[in-house]
Amino acid sequence: MLDARTRQVLNECFANIVKATIRREPGVQYVALPDAAVGWPIDDKAYEQFLSLVVSKSAFLARIDMVTGLDRLQGNILRDNITGHVLKRTNVDNVTIRKPTIVGTTTPELYNLLRAEWDWMISYDRIRQWAYKGPEFLSQRIANQIAQLYANDLLWVGFNGTSDGNPPAQADLSDFAIGWLQLLRAYAAGAQFMAEVVAGSGVITVGPQRVLAFEGAAVNMGGGVVGFPVTAHGRPAGSQIVIAGTVNYNGAHLVLPSSTANQVHAVEVDRAEDVTGKTATHTPDYASLDALAADLRNSIEAELRMDLVAIISDDLRATEEETIYGEVGRTPSEKIALQRAFSELAGLERVSPSLMPAGTMLITPPKNLAIYQHQLVQRRMRDEPERNGVSFYNDSQLDYIISDYRRAMAAENIAITK
Fold first, then answer.
1. How far is the C-alpha of 105 from the C-alpha of 380, rounded, in Å?
2. DSSP state at residue 358
């Protein structure tokens, strides 16, 4: 339970939050503020201020398009027109009517706002820690905590959402809403999304060519699978290797998921051959992340390439940096040069937002990614002694949008090899 002083601070905090955020309808006179436990509509300006706090918690969220204040649950997606020309010279002698270029259009694609509940509870112990400085300090701490959590969830669903369950059933929020990557996977039968290079491999490999030397006889693994011994081969499942020099196994093979650290498995008929000293060459699909990024960038029409950014998952960034620092990053001057190099990918600015799925790259302007939200947001706050805390219940509607699919290309299942 809360002591009397903490209870007073909490009550003042509740009253201040309601007073500062309530939507005041024109002509409506409030004799008394609504009960926080009953709920109230949040004022547009107050919600904009809250969203500003949310995006301040994520450098990447601050760069996308947050469209708020929508008064319909469904409508046409907005798109900036970046093609065509606005410069012209009118023939005034012939009294030609000047025709301005339209710079913003709506698309045939629709947004569909889905109900979003974002609820949280703060324990009495935490409230006691925060309340000693007064109701304003308590309000600030509450706002900062939920802003961080909300920012994380918005970003997580944007990159990891694959469906929109009603209600969502997955604890990881993968079925809360269809996020940006899933939208791109589904668009035009996957024309803007790469998941593999070699058909059936399920992987995009990146790195230098490597020749593997076998170290013994081929092993019959059963089920039409043969194992080739090679220590620490480092080839991910789906990699294509080309075996040479053997009597029975020459040719291209895909590395199977059953492969171990010291044995490459491939679909083959066992012929009991000693393959010691024979080789398998692995030529990755791309020599570097820069080459992959350049391929994705060049797949976007030239006139639509303005403001493109290379957005890559943190594991790809870390693996590449670890590999290159290990090779050349031994002096201060080398490290400075590498830090500058790591800020770009194929000539594009490189960013690695948190919570992006591993092995993923997206080439697009960040402003091409959007979150649409309805203008009406409802909030309730309730003291819940039976749970030893205070709960906050919020209701809104949102949808994830790619404004112009033509300006986005993505790849997943990327594996860096050494």
1. 37
2. T
Closest by CA to 50, choosing from 145, 129, 147, 136, is: 147
Q: Please report where in the chains the tokens 């919570």 appear, as a residue.
A: 355
Lookup: tokens for 62: 């601050």
**pLDDT tens digits, one per residue of 263-287:** 999 999 988 899 999 999 999 999 9
Amino acid letter, 59: A
Q: In what order do the strands lie in the sheet with 263-267?
A: 219-222, 225-229, 263-267
Contact status, residue 305 vs residue 297, Cβ threshold 8 Å: yes
Check if the beta carbon of residue 311 is closer than 8 Å to that of residue 363. Answer: yes
Query: According to the 3-state scheme, what is the secondary structure of 235-297?
Result: CCCCCEEEEECCCCCCEEEECCCCCECCEEEEECCCCCCECCCCEEEECCCECCHHHHHHHHH
Place of tokens 């060519």: 209
Listed residue (63, 64, 65, 57) closest to 143, CA to CA: 57
Strand order across the 210-213 sheet: 210-213, 279-282, 240-244, 251-254
Provide the whole-model pTM: 0.87
